[in-house]
From TrEMBL:
Region (Disordered): 267-289
Chain intervals with Basic and acidic residues compositional bias: 280-289
Signal peptide: none
InterPro entries with a match to the protein in the record: TPR-like_helical_dom_sf (IPR011990)
Taxonomic lineage: Eukaryota, Viridiplantae, Streptophyta, Embryophyta, Tracheophyta
The protein's name in its UniProt record: Pentatricopeptide repeat-containing protein
Domain of life the protein comes from: Eukaryota
Length: 289
């Protein structure tokens, strides 16, 4: 019986199980479908039975997938459609989120599931993964958010200030402020002249909430060294409170004097950034008269 006929007689689950075993045994040929997908280093990361089961469950989850999409790269060099290509992005994202929520608290299990999921993609799916992260944040699954972002970074992807901000926030919410501090020093803190104030403000808040006062003042002084003015008074107030706790009252007075314009009221007596209705402004002016 020809090989093509035997392939079509096999069930979809059997085909995917066979594929998973090939991946885990490092015998996937470079001309197979994975050559056309994102170059994930599956040989090092998909090595356990649990990861193979993740791949098989992906196939079972979308049982209406056409077997004709399971094909090798033709001699002409053009990739044919891959397994999972006809599945909607929404379903793929939901499947991964549910998989991650069901996994045990194991870095190896999470990384294996992510490697299995991304192996079906031709290019690294950074967009869908960002949606996955947003869904995990909505569920307040901060530990999973940290694991997914670290996996993304380990693939050489997502090296943006937005990703760094998301990781620092997740680490803080997962009660890992010291780890957030180490990440800040390694990836961000050496380039303070260009780090967005939004990210600097987040790190100052992390230090403030976790009583890492020396680190807070060091960061703010580093920003001042580049003549970077804080955009709002809440940042200055945190630094001033920190100086007071540390007993550096002269530094506190210097700080409040330097940035007093952030605390100064506008011409109609309203604090900056606070909007009043017309009737409220008239009432306040009448009281002053």
């Amino acid at each position: 019986m020809p090989a093509t006929t035997r392939l079509h007689m096999m069930s979809r689950s059997a085909i995917l199980t066979r594929l998973a075993r090939q991946i885990s045994q490092l015998t996937v040929n470079r001309n197979s479908v994975l050559t056309c997908s994102y170059n994930t280093d599956a040989r090092h990361s998909i090595t356990k039975r649990s990861d193979a089961e993740t791949i098989e469950s992906f196939g079972d989850r979308f049982s209406n997938q056409s077997l004709s999409s399971f094909a090798q790269k033709p001699s002409g060099g053009e990739c044919k459609p891959q397994v999972g290509e006809n599945v909607s992005r929404k379903d793929k994202i939901s499947f991964l989120v549910n998989t991650l929520l069901d996994l045990k608290d194991s870095k190896e299990a999470v990384y294996g599931a992510l490697d299995a999921w991304v192996a079906w993609e031709r290019t690294f799916p950074i967009g869908p993964l960002k949606q996955v992260l947003l869904k995990l944040e909505k569920e307040q699954q901060w530990h999973r958010v940290v694991q997914v972002i670290k996996w993304i970074l380990s693939k050489g992807q997502g090296n943006t200030m937005g990703t760094y901000e998301q990781l620092i926030k997740a680490l803080d919410m997962d009660h890992r402020a010291n780890e957030a501090h180490e990440f800040w020093k390694k990836k961000i803190g050496s380039d303070l002249h260009s780090v967005p104030w939004r990210l600097c403000s987040l790190m100052i808040s992390v230090y403030y909430r976790n009583h890492m006062l020396e680190d807070l003042t060091k960061l703010f002084k580093g920003l001042e060294a580049f003549d970077r003015k804080p955009p709002d008074k809440s940042i200055v107030q945190k630094v001033a409170d920190t100086y007071e706790v540390l007993g550096s009252l002269d530094e506190k007075d210097r700080l409040l004097e330097k940035y007093k314009d952030l605390f100064t009221e506008t011409w109609d007596g309203n604090p900056k950034g606070l909007r009043w209705s017309r009737s409220q402004r008239k009432e306040k002016q009448a009281q002053q008269n």
